[in-house]
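Hey, resending since the last one bounced:
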Amino acid sequence: MTSPSALLSSVFGFEAFRPGQQEIVEAVVAGQNALAIMPTGGGKSLCYQLPALCRDGVTVVISPLIALMRDQVRALHEAGVPAGALTSGNTDEETDAVFAALDRGELRLLYMAPERLASGGTVPFLRRIGVNLIAVDEAHCVSQWGHDFRPDYLRIGALRRDLNVPLAAFTATADAETRDEIVTRLFDGEAPKVFLHGFDRPNIHLAFAAKDQPRRQILAFAAARKGQSGIVYCGTRAKTETLAAALCAEGHAACHYHGGMEAEPRRAVETRFQREDGLIVVATVAFGMGVDKPDIRWVAHADLPKSIEAYYQEIGRAGRDGAPADTLTLYGADDIRLRRAQVDEGLAPPERKSADHARLNALLGLAEALGCRRQALLGYFGETSEPCGNCDLCATPPETFDGTEAVRKALSAILRTGEWFGSGHLIDILTGTETDKVRARGHSDLPTFGVGKDLNRREWQAVFRQMMGHDLVRPDPERHGALRMTHDARPILKGEAAITLRRDTMKAATQRPAVRMLVSEEDAPLLSALKAKRRALAEEQRVPAYVIFPDRTLIEMAETRPSTLDEMAGISGVGVKKLERYGALFLEVITGEATPAPHPQRRKLAGRDEGAVFDRLVEVQAELARGPMGVDKPMSCSTSLLARVAKQRPADPDSLARLLGDKRADRFGSAFLDVLNEA
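The structure tokens again:
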């Protein structure tokens, strides 16, 4: 059996596993049931693709989205791995080709949608083709309370029992409750080997901003990243359309996507996004799970996500290739009201609503954080870290103040008006603004009338937003969104607790986002040229650009500027097949001149020590082609024979003679052994 490490290098072009991958791969190769919770972009797919190549038989991969399956199959084909997919999106010809390849015993990975498990013929079919491993992608879809629940995922446990084969389940967003549900439903409650790897994505820059002309904020963020692929998440379908139009008017390639669109236009957007460099998709969360484009350089939220898990999953679609990526999340008081109302008005039982409020509180705590955001985010998932240096608050520490007095004034106004009013009316009272509504209700006679004149209206709006963010007050859906105090507010009102607020978010935003570059100014033109070559090849082959090479690989090419195929083979992501297909083409872009095509036997050794040994053997052979004195009959070894010598490295004359034959051993043996001993 070929070792996983050898296949990692030769097939996928990576010299080392990412953190956590190797132990998962070894467990799956050994046939253990496994549940792996890894960060989005942490390399989950490799953790079942490598074992599929190491084990006998077929690995069936159950995945939730057709686009995701098709893209993974394309990428595997590019790497020289025989894989296929059976989906409702297949043509009859594609389906026939997959069945024929399975009958010939050629496929190692078969991708299937969970809905296919409902067919009575599926289990006999999978038995017949020799399935010996089940891999489940996006395993959290089995959770009935999750927003990605897929009923057919509930059939996977029975499939595992029927086939009696090991199962490896993978997800990025499983809290303890969801993990327990996965174990119960997929593994019949028998604990698999669980791998819980850090949730940190250090390449992603985290940033939040209070809404202040939010359309302008999104346009400025996109302008600083012009030409880079991005996603803008919106809370409503209408906003996706208007914001996409605004981005187009600013010169961006942008389109919208939401669940109300017909199937064909949605597929067209998915295809464009996978294939085009620099396209921005403005979408609801309908555009989400299954987006496997590794070179998404930024994700922005025009509205607050529904929970901290949703936030983590959505920002996780950026930077899956490990290269730098940016995020921005906008939020305001209206977002908080909406998210609270969605929880309160839902059909879930009380304990579920309480848990959903807690998840929203965690996200609001992240939005109103006073220190490193990554520490707050990882802390929610039970991890600790040092300040990251890669979030907005590490870059610019927030300006804070003791907000206890302001909050007590606001709470007093809420209490004295019977918890029947929203922030607008309460701010009128605090600032001493005598509106008709204030006079009609006699609120100008309250002790709190005008006690907040030290703050202007914008500043009071920020105070109320932060109070909502700290879960001191909540909108009451039964009172048309009037603010009611929570249990946590009472100690502050009574003077038993203090609270620190952010002053910087109370001011109008003045700073424009800095332009973010993937490489240095010196390397930027070469990166653009490499991307243009990639785009041309992708369009010619009608595949997503990243299937040729992801951004991270092109960035490494631009920074290291390889000048030979051996150096190109050392670039992360350049495996044997991709070096053969594209190595010379990209070298030509880098060096400005065509690279002579090496002999196929030599190309197979590119980037390996054996390649240098092969080159030295060729030189020595040329020197001795007519013997030591240059007068003998010409003699040479075939290229394949020299490659065999370079790979096997015989250590003594007898071993070398068995490879070369007596005549060639007499001519070249001593000199070849000198080369092999030097290597």
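The longest helix spans residues 350-367.

Sorry for the duplicate.
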